[in-house]
Specification:
The protein has helices at about 10-25, 40-65, 70-95, 100-120, 135-150, 160-185, and strands at about 155, 160. By secondary structure, it is mainly alpha-helical.
Length: about 200
């Protein structure tokens, strides 16, 4: 059987653009200080992350509105999100802006849920572990917290470091809860044979 040609559309281009932006979030911190000051490194990392996060919002909206949804698009979309969050957390951990246990909880959850979804797809029960509301709220908390922690400096008299830290802890708590929800939904299928 001849494999289908990969269809390229606007949501797919936005997803690939988001994946391409991920190394830049890390790379901006490798620019020497005499070229880009530490403050401007923070600014540019924040801008790049926000642009990448916005492509996430737009690609899903466009795919649904114009009936451009596809299995590969959904897979790449969730993979890009996980890569973006994990890359940013590694940078923040390196700079001491996020606690190691928080990074471990969030990154560990992403790996666990990805593996769980793959297993559930193999046993024909993928619908049981679709994204839930707790997962969506967790993602929003992460996507707001991470730019604050990347920026780190006070903004309009508000401590981005403090606010971002509070939100990333909220995200970590929601991360644990949403993973428990997924594990409970998947529990009855963990001894099933793959189809």
């Amino acid at each position: 059987m001849k494999p289908k040609r990969l269809s390229v559309n606007v949501p797919m281009i936005l997803t690939w653009a988001r994946i391409a932006l991920i190394p830049l979030i890390i790379g901006v911190f490798y620019i020497p200080d005499w070229i880009l000051s530490p403050f401007m490194q923070n600014v540019w990392a924040t801008i790049i992350f926000v642009i990448a996060a916005l492509t996430d919002a737009f690609d899903g909206y466009i795919a649904r509105k114009y009936n451009m949804e596809s299995a590969i698009g959904a897979f790449l979309d969730t993979s890009a999100d996980k890569l973006m969050v994990c890359a940013a957390l590694i940078v923040l951990l390196d700079f001491g802006r996020v606690d190691m246990i928080v990074a471990l909880i969030i990154i560990g959850r992403e790996i666990t849920v990805t593996a769980l979804r793959e297993w559930m797809a193999k046993v024909g029960a993928a619908a049981r572990v679709k994204v839930n509301w707790f997962g969506k709220i967790k993602a929003i908390a992460q996507m707001v917290a991470i730019p604050m922690l990347l920026f780190w400096e006070p903004f309009m008299g508000i401590s981005m470091a403090w606010l971002g830290t509070i939100l990333i802890y909220v995200a970590a708590i929601l991360t644990i809860y949403s993973m428990v929800v997924y594990m409970r939904a998947a529990g009855p299928y963990l001894n099933s044979d793959p189809k």
